[in-house]
Amino acid sequence: MDYKLLTIAGGSTLLYLVLSTLMAILPGIELSAVPPGPGVKDFTLFEQQGRDVFVKEGCAYCHTQQVRPLEIDKIFGRPSAPGDFAYSTPELAGSERTGPDLTNIGERQSSEVWQYMHLYNPRSVTPQSVMPSFPWLFKVVDKAPQDVKPVPVPKAYAPPHGVVVPGPDAQALVAFLLALKQAPLPNSAPAVAVAAASAAKPAQAATITPAADKTPLAFDAANGLKLFAANCAACHGAQGAGVPGVFPPLAGNPVVNAADPTEHITVVLNGLHGKAIDGTTYAAEMPTFAAHLSDAEIADIIGHERTSWGNHAPTITAKDVAAVRAKK
Ligand code: HEC
Ligand code: HEC
Q1: Are 311 and 303 in contact (CB under 8 A)?
Q2: How far is the CA of 85 from the centre of ligand 1 (A)?
Q3: Nearest ligand for residue 272 CA
Q4: Do 73 and 79 form a contact (C-beta atoms < 8 A)?
Q5: CB of 111 sitting under 6 A from ligand 2
């Protein structure tokens, strides 16, 4: 009887030890020994403090930092490579994806203001979010100190009195989030270069057969909707309504509805800051997308904006984007 129990307990303990060594400890040791991939940067001291806040606040319970080589992971970046983790030991790869993967969040959501608003209360930028608020990373003060910009929390989420300013932990955490950027793999040509190369061909063909110019390609509406959701909706809202006083609405926006699309394309390529739109100056800035989106992708997004939420404006093609990009 005792002998039987001992065999079961001993056997299962041994099996547990063998499996955890094979599946977790050895791969972990091997991964930690991989040298950094080309372009993979170490974190600064401040960013490392932010990483500690990330661990302490349990962000990794809901967010992975590993992009799988799967179609559904494409919106998070390129597939992760062993060399990506050289400066992230112990790795925060995570296993639960209640929220999006954060491997490349510094590229995908580069606005510091957005990150602060989202941490203070995720509902202030993503109304349907189930992510918890982290108000204890912030302070509510009567007046922001000279060198600190208050977080432009929308009225519905703002404290009744005073302004919200980020505390030291929030500042470090956001510095860490903005440093999470994937270095391009040497053998994977950036999407932009590939798109530019393929866009160059039809343009050449068009100069030989001018008839091609008269039949502009229709934009891909489904792709435009998907790309807008992944790149723009966090600030401008899925319905193009924006966040009052914080991010401008695109429904009814004059630039979006202008017949000449040059300014619209320029804003998406180069970003925008400090322009008063409809009498409102925005503290946040519109990030640049020139490096992250191909000409065809920008044409699809702009097509979506120009035909949605009551907007009626001519759509554009990848060639129009290429022309504006070339002038830069
Ligand atoms: C209970 C689960 C949960 C926890 C804990 C959590 N998040 Fe989230 N997070 C989510 C969900 C769900 C979303 C998607 C909705 C949204 O944008 O708010 C999200 C979105 C995000 C995004 C935007 C991602 C994108 O692709 O736009 C960032 C950045 C983020 N979280 C950072 C953090 C940080 C930093 C912490 C810790 C301080 C944290 N989260 C803790 C669930 C969580
Ligand atoms: C991090 C938040 C954020 C994201 C993401 C974002 N924008 Fe913006 N966008 C802004 C802000 C802020 C402004 C206003 C900037 C200003 O006036 O200084 C703006 C302005 C605009 C305008 C109006 C320009 C004008 O002159 O009236 C357009 C069009 C636009 N964005 C399109 C896009 C598209 C397309 C995407 C996605 C590819 C996108 N935005 C993603 C924050 C964002």
Answers
A1: no
A2: 21
A3: 2
A4: yes
A5: yes
Question: At residue 180, what is the residue type?
Answer: L
91 pocket-lining for ligand 1 (C-beta < 6 Å):
no
pLDDT value at residue 69: 94
- Give per-residue pLDDT as tens, 14-29: 999 999 999 988 988 8
Count Cα neighbours of 152 within 13 Å in the Cβ-side half-sphere: 16
Atom of ligand 2 nearest to the CA of 263: 26
Q: What is the pLDDT of residue 191?
A: 43
Measured in Å, residue 272 CA sits from the centre of ligand 2 at 7
N-term to C-term CA, the chain: 82
Does 306 contact ligand 1 (Cβ within 6 A)? no
Residue in 131, 134, 174 to alter for ligand 1 test, most ligand atoms within 8 A of Cβ: 131
Rounded distance between C-alpha atoms, residue 172 and residue 111, angstroms? 15
Compute, in degrees rounded to 10, the torsion defined by CA atoms 296, 317, 222, 270.
60
Buried b (16+ CB within 10 A) or exposed e, 296-315: bbbbbbbbbbbbbbebebeb
Instruction: For residue 131, report the distance from its CA to the centre of ligand 1, in Å.
Output: 5
Confidence tier at 187 by pLDDT (50, 70, 90): low
**Residues 50 and 82 sit within 8 Å (Cβ to Cβ):** no
Q: What is the pLDDT of residues 86-128, one digit of tens each?
A: 898 888 999 999 999 999 999 888 888 899 999 999 998 887 8
Tell me what pLDDT residue 156 has.
86
Name residue 102's amino acid: L
Confidence band for 286, pLDDT divided at 50, 70 and 90:
confident
Ligand 2 midpoint to CA 98 (Å): 27
Mean pLDDT of all residues in 271-293? 88
Sign of the alpha-carbon torsion through 305, 311, 314, 320: negative
State the pLDDT at residue 62.
97
Among 54, 50, 71, 72, CA closest to 63: 54
